[in-house]
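Input protein
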Amino acid sequence: MEVLVNIEHGADLVEEVNVEGICAFAMEHMKLPSNAEVSVTFIDNEEMARLNKEYRGIEGPTDVLSFECDNVEDELSSSRAEDAPYELGDIVIAPDVAAAQSDDYGTSIVEEFELLLVHGILHLCGMDHEKDDEAKVMEAREQELLNAWRAL
């Protein structure tokens, strides 16, 4: 498992988070191929608002966005070389939104980032929370992974 991290904004907020560790842990527990890779980018609210508007049609920044790659079935996925990395996708997080949510929910900033990272991985694995029944399944899986991670 490979986790590529790019911190464009919020390095001071992210510094205590084991981004690579929790992402690899979640990917392994989701039984992804050993050559799976994910990228995680931390950006400012302005860029997150732009992406949120462009891809979801929603004004303003959000906490996390996920963009699937090889999990999406298309004509390119069948032609991928066998030894090529399995590119799960990209997770984009707005650290300032995460920090505000941490204050609102009474969690630590590390706990908030861990939740957002696991949430992003689950989206990249095809899980969603648009419907109530889907949300219950996704939230239960998030909690299961977070509990296991924090028990290490």
About this structure: The domain at 2-150 is CATH 3.40.390.30 (Collagenase (Catalytic Domain)). Residues 132-150 form the longest helix (19 residues).
